[in-house]
Amino acid sequence: MTTYGSDDASYKAAGQLAGITQLVEDFYSCMDTFPEAYEIRQMHGEDLTESRLKLSYFLSGWLGGPKLYAQHFGGISIPGYHQHLAIGEQERDAWLLCMQQAIDKQPYDEAFKAYLLAQLRIPAERVRLVSEHNQQR
């Protein structure tokens, strides 16, 4: 039985960089088309090329594969990187909706799909909490 989250098991379950890149493509496609995602889409530039690359590279390392984000862009704190944005429950939920729909499109094992979405809820909530804290200042 695969233990996701140990070594590179999650990276392999996601299809390595090619699979992660497809997930990110589908994620941003959802963000471009879902009315619920309008507000978070507006937080990005018109051209999503760099956003797609950065998210793919981040997820590669986050899932136990090569640390491509760090190699190309340096270290990152996801909540810190997003702290300038107003992220509330609606924005967090819209992001998770897009990610859930993108995950559902992938040929991943059902157990990995559930694991991945559960794991992604953690940084999504942290981003919301940091944003909320910054908005109260």
CATH topology: Globin-like
User: With helices defined by DSSP (H or I, 4 residues minimum), what is the helix count?
Assistant: 8
Radius of gyration: 15 Å
Which sheet architecture does the biggest sheet show? Answer: none
Strand coverage percent: under 5%
Q: What characteristic shape results from the CA principal axes? A: globular
Task: Indicate the structural class.
Answer: mainly alpha
User: By CATH's scheme, which homologous superfamily applies?
Assistant: Globins
Give a count of the beta strands, DSSP E runs of length 2 or more.
0
Q: What fraction, in percent, of the residue positions are helical?
A: over 70%
CATH class equals Mainly Alpha
Q: Which architecture does the CATH hierarchy give at level 2?
A: Orthogonal Bundle
Taken together, the total number of domains comes to 1
The arrangement of helices and strands along the chain is HHHHHHHH
On the 0-100 scale, what is the average pLDDT? 94
Could you tell me how far the N terminus lies from the C terminus, measured between alpha carbons in angstroms? 47 Å
Low-pLDDT stretches are: none
Walk me through the structure:
This protein has 137 residues and is mainly alpha-helical. The chain contains 8 helices and no strands. Helix 2 crosses helix 4 and helix 7 packs antiparallel against helix 8. It is globular, with a radius of gyration of 15 Å. The termini are far apart.
